[in-house]
UniProtKB/TrEMBL annotation:
The name this protein goes by in its record: Maltodextrin-binding protein
Keyword Cell membrane on entry: yes
Signal sequence extent: 1-18
Compartment(s): Cell membrane
Membrane topology classification: Lipid-anchor
Lineage: Bacteria, Bacillati, Bacillota, Bacilli, Bacillales
Composition skew (Low complexity), residue ranges: 28-50
GO CC term (a single one): ATP-binding cassette (ABC) transporter complex, substrate-binding subunit-containing
UniProt-listed Pfam families: SBP_bac_8 (PF13416)
Length: 436
């Protein structure tokens, strides 16, 4: 259910592929690194002052894990880093979603990368296993530069760990030929569907993956939530409160109003094909499909999700960030690299080279980013998004809520009953069975 998102499709930028480098590191220790950085209190000045005070260890070299799509950027920024600090940086290809699992074994064995990058919903697992060091020395600099949503996502149990790099969420794709102006409310979509829908001709106003919690969180978000305290409190579950039930009830009503199909008949490939054929007017989707829609010759736009029951629709979002391996032999050099690769300048370079959307506030507001209509639409939605909870107990949520969605959409069951049942299953798993 969880996804690792590829933003390199955004703004029709070419996705660059390269072969992996399997070179060894030789720069890790089998013991967790003791911090040799100056006191974070010394990091009182913003900008480059901190980088000038913190020095890499003598003879330091670094290994960095990243996906093949990001290799051009990592190698370019590593060259700049080496020129400034004299520290050699090697790149090894490894997808972001696979890094924490690999680090569980490779970190203690001294084989893991010194600097890793993964989506924030893996952070709880990484911290619980003692795999990453806090972002201590550059904490104030990171907090001043990054969006609040990104900072909350890379903070666990009140401590900042990540160096935010890029953000990601889904939004509303709309066919400008069929709907020149994107709708602001779901009521507008309902009104459009009355005159446009024709199931026999595969004509639908809107499609989304109605059986997937990831894409249906907007309905629950209008008063509900997964876990309290910014997704950190497993004992505070907001999936069956009044707001969540109201949203789920409205969700169930849309089967007869918008999309008279069962959830199993609304797949990613089906709706992608209908949108590319010009019969689906709107699609709730992520940036990974941007290039295909453009290559199909569709004149489309991207806009924030329409309001639901008069309330803003919050999407799930993900934040990718750099982290320092707690078993690194060179934690200071690793800190410097993680910070160096997450500055405004580095994130703008990454956007230019790969299309990754910046987590840095100034970079996100840069004209080179804001001037692109597609990118702007996703960033506007990100600003009203909710990071997926990063605690391990999030693994207990997907299946029960997925079953509730199926009961309400396919079987027409009562929303409160379905959500009460899901919440009880989640509580049972949190208090007994290990997260799935």
């Amino acid at each position: 259910m969880k996804k690792t998102y590829v933003w390199t499709m955004v703004a029709a930028m070419a996705l660059v592929s390269a072969c992996g480098n399997n070179g060894g590191n030789g720069g890790n220790s089998a013991e967790p690194a003791a911090s040799t950085a100056p006191s974070p209190a010394a990091n009182a000045d913003a900008g480059g002052a901190a980088a000038e005070e913190l020095q890499p260890e003598e003879g330091a070299s670094l290994l960095v894990w990243e996906s093949k799509e990001e290799r051009p950027f990592v190698e370019a920024i590593a060259k700049e880093f080496t020129e400034k600090y004299g520290v050699e940086v090697k790149f090894e290809e490894l997808g972001a979603g696979d890094q924490v699992n690999k680090l569980i074994n490779d970190g203690p064995a001294g084989l893991g990368a010194d600097v890793v990058l993964f989506p924030h919903d893996n952070l709880g697992k990484a911290v619980s296993a003692g795999l990453v060091l806090p972002n201590d020395y550059f904490e104030e600099e990171t907090k001043a530069a990054s969006s609040e949503i990104a900072l909350n996502a890379v903070t666990y149990d009140g401590m900042l760990y990540g160096y935010p790099r890029s953000v990601e969420t889904y939004a509303l794709f709309y066919n400008k030929k069929l709907m020149p102006t994107p709708p602001k409310t779901f009521e507008e979509i309902e009104a459009f569907a009355k005159t446009y829908n024709d199931p026999k001709a595969n004509k639908y106003a809107l499609m989304w993956e109605v059986g997937n919690l990831y894409f249906n969180y907007p309905f629950l978000s209008t008063g509900g939530y997964i876990y309290g305290d910014n997704g950190q409190n497993k004992d505070d579950i907001g999936l069956n409160n009044e707001g969540a039930v109201e949203g789920m009830t409205y969700y169930g009503s849309l089967k007869s109003k918008l999309l008279p199909l069962n959830s199993g008949d609304i797949t990613y490939d089906i709706k992608k094909g209908l949108f590319m054929n010009g019969t689906l007017a709107m699609d709730i989707n992520g940036p990974w499909t941007t290039a295909e829609y453009r290559n199909a010759g569709i004149d489309f736009g991207v806009a924030p999700l329409p309001s639901i029951n008069g309330k803003p629709a919050s999407s799930f979002s993900g934040i990718k960030a750099w982290y320092v391996n707690s078993f690194s032999k060179y934690p200071n050099a690793a800190r410097l690299f993680a910070n160096f690769t997450s500055t405004k300048e580095a994130q703008l370079k990454n956007f230019e080279m790969t299309g990754a959307l910046p987590a840095n506030k100034d970079a996100a507001n840069d004209p080179s980013v804001q001037s692109n209509e597609i990118v702007k639409g996703f960033l506007e939605q990100f600003n009203q998004s909710t990071p997926m909870p990063s605690i391990p107990e999030m693994g207990n949520v997907w299946s029960p809520v997925g079953a509730a969605l199926s009961d309400v959409w396919n079987e027409g069951k009562d929303a409160k009953t379905a959500l009460d049942n899901a919440v009880q299953q989640i509580k049972d798993a949190n208090n007994g069975a290990a997260p799935k």
